[in-house]
Amino acid sequence: MAITDYFRISGFVADMKSRNLSLYGQWIGITSIFLSLALGISNLFHVNIVFVFGIIAIVQAPILALVEIPFLLKIFRIPDSIITFVQSLDTNFMRVIFYAIMAIIQWLSLTCKATSLIALAIMFTIAMFAYAGAMLLGQEFHKSNVVATVQVGETPAEAQIRNVL
């Protein structure tokens, strides 16, 4: 195991020991990225209107990735309006609203047919409750130590090289 892997694992363990619900919400959100993509693809093959919710789940995956992994905002060329939107979600209250909207969209898929998208709706709801708990307990909004964060003014070395090329 490389030394960087050790720091990532120990960073994850530190996040779990912190008892900060916003960190738990972030990790649930990161898990939801992969779940959203997988379940979205698997629900594309339904004959009825459920495939629309599958497409929505696929679209939700990169949105979640940008929200929960802010380093991606610097790797890819993204319009400033999207960066501003993602930065406006950097409070517990705004994340509660964000995940509530995401959850409601997937709960609505049950009106057509009960599918595996219910798991995604449950994950979004759990993330919403994690951020709501952090807000109600007065915990500060924190981002994980494992997920690389870059301030808006900073540019990673790889992005600087790409800009020169």
From TrEMBL:
One Pfam family from the record: Cg6151-P
Domain of life of the source: Eukaryota
Its biological purpose: Golgi membrane protein involved in vesicular trafficking.
PANTHER family xref list: CALCIUM CHANNEL FLOWER HOMOLOG (PTHR13314:SF2)
Alphabetized UniProt keyword annotations: Golgi apparatus, Membrane, Transmembrane, Transmembrane helix
Protein name in UniProt: Golgi apparatus membrane protein TVP18
The family this protein is said to belong to: Belongs to the TVP18 family.
Subcellular location: Golgi apparatus membrane
GO terms for cellular component: Golgi membrane
Parts of the chain that traverse the membrane: 21-41, 47-73, 93-110, 116-137
Annotated membrane topology: Multi-pass membrane protein
Organism whose genome encodes this protein: Pichia kudriavzevii
Gene Ontology annotations of biological process type: vesicle-mediated transport
